[in-house]
Amino acid sequence: MSIRKELLARRRFLQLSAFVGAGAVIAACGATAPEAPATEATVAPAAEATMAPEATMAPEATAAVAEATTAPTAEPMLPPAPAPGPLSAADAGGIDELIAKAKAEGELNVIALSHDWLNYGEVISSFAAKYGIKVNELNPDAGSGDEIAAIKANAGNTGPQAPDVIDVGFAFGPSSKEANLLQPYKVSTWSEIPDSLKDADGFWYGAYYGVLAIAVNKDVVPASPATWSDLLKPEYKGQFALTGDPRSSILAIQTIYAAAQSNGGSLDDAKPGLEFFAKLKESGTLIETMGSTALFTQGETPIMPMWSFLALGMRDTTAGNPEVDVVIPEPVFGGVYVQAISAYAPHPHAARLWQEHLFSDEVQLIWAKAYGIPTRFGAMLSAKKVPADVLSKISSVDLMAKAIFPNVAQLNASKTVITKQWDTIVKMEITKKD
């Protein structure tokens, strides 16, 4: 399966400038969050049952850490964006008129939507079938940085290479708005998206989230580790692999940051995570080989950290060959993805209809069936719109409801500590196997 935004390594990681987020915990179960400066993690009352993070954050936003020896080159000026489209379906003349205008455009350009990432294959096919609109799929394995680069590279281009819409890590929402790369739109279900997960002006909006998990190949590892500290036990020697280089991979960085939370660190102190990984190296648990889905299923990297919906999806895909166990260590560490429309969208009405599709009950449930937690989940649950079979897919809801989301300052600080001190504290090269 594709692990697009995490395991496929951010090709533009060293070029990007955003590794941000805001503190939060997922509402509904009344768990309290660690103290955090500024955008402090908070909890919604259980009665609200929002089942969504109560503040904005950045799951997989990447960071600029390249230290250039020459002066940075200024980006070329982009052409002026066309006037933005309607802010809502009502402003378009109603949903029927929006559909008619989208059908008249006839096409939609999407990017970075691998079919096995949260059932996006079904999401795309259902949109095309329902509205008769051709969906042009650009670079399915792209990451958030590639999506933003594609908007810039194709600004003013009305052809199929110019993205109409993007699905990115939270950090890229605010930064892209600031760079004037987005245009606003508020879907019909706007009120059911938590305020903390959307831009008040409608430029970006949270769609789904997951939490950090540890996938275990049970054919190789009979007894799964239940906690981060369990990984220090002798039986796990030579079995734990990161899925990226901690000096550049966002998932690797967040894995170390997450481990710090239960090993003497906090959201304000990531260094204990590095010290813990130094112990994993010394114990022989941590191996130099970079983990991948293929190596995991082959048993070569049988214990790997990844987002919960990827791990659970892999468990289903392998269908017991090998058997996959998914462990969600505490404190639970989460991340959200957002949707937005390009300011240069060649098909602005089709782009808006796509957003209506994504935030419909239909697609929110498609994501839930793929183990993602949609941001409208709480409202849908309260309205009894979540079938029992779909609800059963949301594994360990109570546990996930305690997820913490570091804020902007915390993520920036943790990134700096981990990327700069990995070589001096852990002293290990994580390399891809040829």
Gross CATH architecture of the domain at 95-209 and 335-371? 3-Layer(aba) Sandwich
Give the integer mean of the pLDDT values. 83
Strand-pairing-aware structural class: alpha+beta
Distance between the termini: 19 Å
Rg, alpha carbons: 21 Å
Note the total helix count. 14
Count every beta strand, where a strand is a DSSP E run of 2 or more residues: 11
Q: What string, H for helix and E for strand, traces the elements in order?
A: EHEHEHEHEEHHHEHEEHHEHHHEH
Describe the structure in your own words:
This protein is an alpha+beta fold. Among the domains are: 95-209 and 335-371, D-Maltodextrin-Binding Protein, domain 2, CATH 3.40.190; 211-331, Periplasmic binding protein-like II (D-Maltodextrin-Binding Protein, domain 2, 3-Layer(aba) Sandwich), CATH 3.40.190. The chain is 31% helix and 12% strand. The protein has helices at residues 95-105, 120-131, 144-153, 172-178, 250-260, 271-283, 293-298, 308-318, 348-358, 361-369, 377-382, 388-391, 397-400, 408-425, and strands at 24-25, 107-111, 134-138, 165-169, 182-183, 205-217, 303-307, 324-327, 334-342, 373-374, 404-405. The strands form 3 sheets. Strands 4, 5, 6, 7, 8, 9 and 10 form a 7-stranded antiparallel β-sheet that branches. Strand 2 (107-111), helix 2 (120-131) and strand 3 form a beta-alpha-beta unit. Helix 5 (250-260) crosses helix 14 and helix 6 (271-283) packs parallel to helix 14 (408-425). The protein is globular. The model is unreliable at 6-72 (pLDDT under 50).
